[in-house]
Specification:
By secondary structure, the chain is of the alpha+beta class. 20% of the residues lie in helices and 47% in strands. The protein has two domains: 34 residues; 88 residues, Immunoglobulin-like (Sandwich), CATH 2.60.40.1620. A three-stranded antiparallel beta sheet has the order 1-2-5, with no helix packed on it. The chain is elongated and about 85 Å long.
Protein backbone atom coordinates (compact mmCIF):
# COMPACT_ATOMS: atom_id res chain seq x y z
CA UNK A 1 0.00 0.00 0.00
CA UNK A 2 2.53 2.79 0.41
CA UNK A 3 1.81 4.51 -2.94
CA UNK A 4 -1.22 6.65 -1.99
CA UNK A 5 -3.96 4.29 -3.16
CA UNK A 6 -3.86 5.26 -6.85
CA UNK A 7 -3.70 2.67 -9.59
CA UNK A 8 -0.42 2.15 -11.30
CA UNK A 9 -0.02 1.27 -14.92
CA UNK A 10 2.87 -0.90 -15.87
CA UNK A 11 4.37 -0.31 -19.30
CA UNK A 12 4.08 -3.76 -20.81
CA UNK A 13 0.86 -4.98 -19.25
CA UNK A 14 -1.74 -3.01 -21.24
CA UNK A 15 -1.79 -1.48 -24.75
CA UNK A 16 -3.47 1.71 -25.89
CA UNK A 17 -7.20 1.11 -26.41
CA UNK A 18 -8.40 1.30 -30.04
CA UNK A 19 -10.84 4.10 -29.23
CA UNK A 20 -7.98 6.24 -27.93
CA UNK A 21 -6.06 5.67 -31.17
CA UNK A 22 -9.09 6.59 -33.25
CA UNK A 23 -9.70 9.83 -31.34
CA UNK A 24 -6.00 10.73 -31.58
CA UNK A 25 -5.95 10.15 -35.33
CA UNK A 26 -9.14 12.18 -35.79
CA UNK A 27 -7.66 15.07 -33.79
CA UNK A 28 -4.44 14.98 -35.82
CA UNK A 29 -6.41 14.95 -39.08
CA UNK A 30 -8.47 17.97 -37.99
CA UNK A 31 -5.38 19.94 -36.96
CA UNK A 32 -3.54 19.15 -40.20
CA UNK A 33 -6.54 19.99 -42.38
CA UNK A 34 -7.06 23.29 -40.52
CA UNK A 35 -3.41 24.23 -41.02
CA UNK A 36 -3.61 23.28 -44.69
CA UNK A 37 -6.74 25.39 -45.21
CA UNK A 38 -5.21 28.40 -43.46
CA UNK A 39 -2.07 28.05 -45.58
CA UNK A 40 -4.12 27.86 -48.76
CA UNK A 41 -6.12 30.96 -47.72
CA UNK A 42 -2.95 32.89 -46.96
CA UNK A 43 -1.19 32.02 -50.21
CA UNK A 44 -3.85 31.12 -52.78
CA UNK A 45 -6.53 33.75 -52.46
CA UNK A 46 -4.37 36.80 -51.80
CA UNK A 47 -3.19 36.73 -55.39
CA UNK A 48 -6.46 38.18 -56.71
CA UNK A 49 -7.06 41.89 -56.03
CA UNK A 50 -10.22 43.29 -54.44
CA UNK A 51 -13.21 43.51 -56.79
CA UNK A 52 -15.49 46.18 -55.31
CA UNK A 53 -19.01 46.91 -56.55
CA UNK A 54 -21.56 49.32 -55.04
CA UNK A 55 -25.29 48.81 -55.67
CA UNK A 56 -28.15 51.10 -54.62
CA UNK A 57 -30.68 49.19 -52.50
CA UNK A 58 -33.06 51.89 -51.24
CA UNK A 59 -33.91 55.60 -51.29
CA UNK A 60 -36.00 57.19 -48.53
CA UNK A 61 -36.74 60.68 -47.35
CA UNK A 62 -34.86 61.59 -44.18
CA UNK A 63 -35.47 64.89 -42.39
CA UNK A 64 -34.60 67.59 -44.88
CA UNK A 65 -32.89 65.23 -47.33
CA UNK A 66 -32.66 61.70 -48.66
CA UNK A 67 -30.92 58.56 -47.41
CA UNK A 68 -29.63 56.27 -50.15
CA UNK A 69 -28.95 52.72 -48.91
CA UNK A 70 -26.02 51.10 -50.70
CA UNK A 71 -24.57 47.60 -50.52
CA UNK A 72 -20.82 47.44 -51.13
CA UNK A 73 -19.41 44.00 -52.06
CA UNK A 74 -15.85 42.78 -52.38
CA UNK A 75 -15.92 39.62 -54.47
CA UNK A 76 -12.15 39.64 -54.89
CA UNK A 77 -9.65 37.47 -53.08
CA UNK A 78 -7.97 40.05 -50.86
CA UNK A 79 -8.97 42.66 -48.32
CA UNK A 80 -9.37 46.33 -49.19
CA UNK A 81 -8.83 49.21 -46.76
CA UNK A 82 -9.90 52.87 -46.96
CA UNK A 83 -12.52 52.03 -49.60
CA UNK A 84 -13.90 55.25 -51.06
CA UNK A 85 -17.56 55.10 -52.20
CA UNK A 86 -18.98 58.15 -53.94
CA UNK A 87 -22.55 58.89 -54.98
CA UNK A 88 -23.29 61.52 -57.60
CA UNK A 89 -26.56 63.15 -58.59
CA UNK A 90 -26.31 64.47 -62.15
CA UNK A 91 -28.84 66.24 -64.31
CA UNK A 92 -28.17 66.53 -68.06
CA UNK A 93 -24.47 65.83 -67.44
CA UNK A 94 -24.14 68.52 -64.76
CA UNK A 95 -23.24 67.62 -61.19
CA UNK A 96 -26.05 68.55 -58.81
CA UNK A 97 -24.72 67.00 -55.60
CA UNK A 98 -22.36 64.33 -54.35
CA UNK A 99 -21.87 62.37 -51.15
CA UNK A 100 -19.07 60.04 -50.08
CA UNK A 101 -18.33 57.37 -47.49
CA UNK A 102 -15.00 55.75 -46.65
CA UNK A 103 -15.07 52.15 -45.39
CA UNK A 104 -12.14 51.40 -43.11
CA UNK A 105 -12.01 47.71 -43.96
CA UNK A 106 -13.73 45.46 -46.52
CA UNK A 107 -12.62 41.81 -46.28
CA UNK A 108 -12.46 39.48 -49.26
CA UNK A 109 -15.78 37.86 -50.22
CA UNK A 110 -17.82 40.14 -47.95
CA UNK A 111 -20.32 42.99 -48.11
CA UNK A 112 -21.25 46.05 -46.05
CA UNK A 113 -24.29 48.31 -46.06
CA UNK A 114 -23.72 52.06 -46.05
CA UNK A 115 -25.86 55.18 -46.36
CA UNK A 116 -25.24 58.20 -48.57
CA UNK A 117 -27.07 61.39 -47.59
CA UNK A 118 -28.29 63.86 -50.21
CA UNK A 119 -30.22 67.12 -49.88
CA UNK A 120 -31.85 66.76 -53.32
CA UNK A 121 -34.48 64.21 -54.28
CA UNK A 122 -32.64 61.47 -56.22
CA UNK A 123 -35.64 60.93 -58.52
CA UNK A 124 -34.94 64.32 -60.15
CA UNK A 125 -31.56 63.24 -61.43
CA UNK A 126 -29.36 60.36 -62.51
CA UNK A 127 -27.89 58.69 -59.43
CA UNK A 128 -24.50 57.01 -59.87
CA UNK A 129 -22.72 55.21 -57.05
CA UNK A 130 -19.12 54.11 -57.64
CA UNK A 131 -16.24 52.58 -55.76
CA UNK A 132 -13.47 55.08 -56.48
CA UNK A 133 -10.48 53.49 -54.81
CA UNK A 134 -8.93 51.51 -51.97
CA UNK A 135 -5.63 50.85 -50.24
CA UNK A 136 -3.98 47.54 -49.46
CA UNK A 137 -3.95 46.94 -45.70
Amino acid sequence: MGQGGGQRRHGGEEGVPPLEWAVSLLGAALVLSSLGYLGWQAVGERTTPPDIVADVRSARPRGSGWLIGVEVRNSGGSTAAAVEIRGRLEQAGTLVEESAVTLDYLPAASSRRIGLIFQHDPTCCDLRVLAEGYAEP
